[in-house]
Design goal:
9 strands, oxidoreductase, transmembrane helix, seven-stranded parallel sheet, two-stranded parallel ribbon, about 240 residues, transmembrane
Length: about 240
């Protein structure tokens, strides 16, 4: 298995869930920009599950040498890459903040995804799981830079799923709502609408095994976002969301 964004609590919870369920991987490739933290997780799954893992350094804000990935092969790719950045009031007109959000969540991530998608296509097998966000379902004033990048990523996954369908490659889009993770630490989140990494991992694993196309981590978010998507624009633009 290839894990992009392997310091994510959701990614690590999914790896553990898959191993607990008896999934077998010749090797798990943990892609990360934080080698020290990821090496600790690699040691953890080695001790707990006797699972071999290799840490692969990847910084999406720097130039990428794809030749380093030539010998990496897998049948599952799990992408949990995400960067929230500064909110609208603090970061809207900070171009460095905007560039970083777009690079990490979309523009530098998609070529990496494509690199491995091509390998999956060549083998005519495998599953690609991408974590997008409900923030991409409609632009809201509170986080529309992040939301727009996630909307682009959702559209990419949709197109990739359509393209790879007859190549026997499954593409699953996951849309988490509020998540209790380091990325959202300090934010005031409704506990009834917030999932833990373990809850998310369980939902994602079920969607993976059922070969779903799109899944919300908490079902209530599909209802919430359906309502938000269907609010008329002349009303929506007046709302403080």
């Amino acid at each position: 298995m290839i894990v992009l964004g392997s310091t994510s609590e959701v990614a690590q919870a999914f790896v553990e869930k898959a191993l607990q369920e008896g999934e077998k991987f010749e090797k798990i490739y943990l892609f990360t920009s934080n080698k020290e933290t990821t090496e600790r997780f690699a040691r953890h799954i080695d001790v707990k599950f006797l699972q071999q893992a290799e840490v692969v350094e990847l910084d999406l804000t720097k130039e990428i040498d794809y030749n380093r990935f030539d010998n990496i092969n897998s049948n599952v790719l799990f992408c949990a890459v995400g960067y929230l950045g500064e909110g609208t009031e603090e970061g809207l007109y900070d171009n460095k903040n905007t560039e970083r959000i777009i690079e990490i969540n979309y523009s530098k991530l998609v070529p990496v995804m494509n690199y491995f998608a091509h390998k999956f296509e060549s083998r005519r097998s495998g599953t690609i799981i991408g974590l997008s966000s409900v923030a991409g379902d409609r632009g809201r004033q509170s986080n529309f830079i992040y939301g727009s990048a996630k909307a682009a990523f959702t559209a990419y996954l949709s197109g990739l799923r359509n393209y790879l369908f007859d190549k026997k490659v499954h593409v699953l889009t996951i849309k988490p709502g509020f998540m209790a993770t380091k990325m959202t630490e300090g934010l005031s989140l409704n506990p009834k609408l917030t999932a833990t990494p373990k809850q998310a991992a369980s939902c994602i694993y079920k969607a993976f095994k059922k070969q779903k196309d799109v899944a919300y981590v908490l079902p209530v978010w599909s209802i919430i976002m359906m309502i938000i998507r269907n609010i008329p624009e002349f009303i929506f633009k007046k709302l403080k969301l």
